[in-house]
Task: structure prediction
Amino acid sequence: MKLRKEIIDFCLSLKGTYEDYPFSDFNWTIMRCEKNKKMFCAIFERQGKIWVNVKCEPSLAELWRNTYSSVIPAYHMNKKHWNSIILDGTVPKDEIKNMIIDSFETVNKK
Result:
């Protein structure tokens, strides 16, 4: 996964999600849960690559950062609970999907 559209389409495949552009900067696509309006994914271009911010438990955030050099503390977000995935081809597609699903489930908890 390297394209913004691929990430958006995958996020929209999760039940009860929608795409939002709440900022004056349309570089930022925000994916939200319908039931609580919470953001679970932010997609933006930075330094010539697509970046994806996802929420996760702190221990999982550290695990992913230690596993992949392209997963770093999130740009413009709480560094303890959010990671940025830089889509440079080094993180496997299934792992990106798992991180997005985990983020969706984390913000969608009751």
Q: What stands out?
A: The two ends are 30 Å apart (CA to CA). The mean pLDDT is 94.
